[in-house]
Amino acid sequence: MSKEFFEVKDTRKLCKLLGLPESEAAKIEIRRNLVIAIKRAIEENSYTHQEAASEAEVGRTVITSIVNGNLEKISTDRLIDIAQALGLKVKLQVA
Description:
Radius of gyration: 15 Å
Number of strands: 0
Number of domains: 1
Largest sheet: none
Number of helices: 5
Structural class: mainly alpha
Shape: globular
CATH class: Mainly Alpha
CATH architecture: Orthogonal Bundle
Strand content: under 5%
Helix content: 55-70%
Distance between the termini: 45 Å
């Protein structure tokens, strides 16, 4: 069974590819940036998934899901809470 892969340069193009309204692009970008920052904080602190989970007061499977990009059941609010618990400052900029 062959899998097709697509590469897109920005979230607007990703939305188009996935059949989502372009208005979802900003939300996807915010979540993507949160995940990148959380993963970076875990790496910089040399945390295991369990250590990061303890620091963020969530289950280990939540951290593992974030690191693996499985965000289906993780809200943006929860990502923000985890980022802050890991010592990150979250700032939303509106232009």
